[in-house]
Amino acid sequence: MGGTSWKKAAYGDYINYSALALISIVSVFPFLYIVSISLTDPSAYTPLKFYLLPEKWSFTSYAYILSTNSFLNSLKSTAFITAVGTVLNLLFTFTMAYGLTKKWVFGRNFFLGAVIVTLFFNAGVIPTYLLVKEMGLLNSYGSLIWPALSNAWSLIVVKSFMESLHPELEDAAKIDGCSDIGVFARIVVPLSLPAIAAFTLFFAVQHWNTYFNALIYISDTKKWTLQVLIKQLIIEADASGVGQSGSTDADIVPQETVRMASIVLAMLPILVVYPFLQKYFAKGVMLGSVKG
């Protein structure tokens, strides 16, 4: 009986692993296709043909897209929003979460309740747009940073994480003469590095992929984010509208290879950063999930 059960379990594992492998392969194919098209030499590219590997390798599409004004402007805009937005997100999220862990803070329950309510209700697109407009943030990077300083989910997770830290460490620091700010900077922040690494990735991806807010708040094409520009490249018939580079390559580079190259360039920074933060990813999120 034991051998039969073991064989059934083994067969079940084979089926599960095979199904997961098949799903993985199917998921990877679109990515390989995009990379393959982007690396295909313009002279060897044939429209509507499936490329798993380029017939003739070339970085012409990348050279062209990186020489255009619009792509470089959108890259600078996205990089600025991501860098500044991520730093402010971490600052506001962790300082507010730390305050919410202190039961003696005046109005703690009110602010905690206000945070939780936003998990179920939000103002909506039109009221938020009117608020951004009245604050004078339209057509500025501030419209993409200030309304997204934090969110309820992040605050609750970070608060739970901080509550799992041993309070004796804070008590010992205060006995040594540390103020509340000193305790936060010298004790809480160093112990929260795994959570900071994880949420740095969360916030950076969120800002790097900013699309809808940029679409409704930013009308100046020089301040477009990468996602808005790529949307224009994919939808518009002429990919040469990406900008004036002053290069004659615009006449010989196929529109499809330019689109694919822009998609790869938009994905590349996150793909490069993620492996370095991966080891902190699960740990930083799960540390606050269990207390004891």
UniProtKB/TrEMBL annotation:
Pfam family, one: BPD_transp_1
ABC transmembrane type-1 domain segment(s): 75-276
Transmembrane stretches, start-end: 14-35, 79-98, 110-132, 183-205, 258-277
Database matches in InterPro entries: MetI-like, MetI-like_sf
Phosphoprotein listed as a keyword: no
Entry annotated with the keyword Transmembrane: yes
Cellular component GO terms held in the UniProt record: plasma membrane
Stated name of the protein: Carbohydrate ABC transporter permease
Stated family: Belongs to the binding-protein-dependent transport system permease family.
Subcellular compartments: Cell membrane
Membrane topology term: Multi-pass membrane protein
GO BP annotations listed: transmembrane transport
Keywords: Cell membrane, Membrane, Transmembrane, Transmembrane helix, Transport
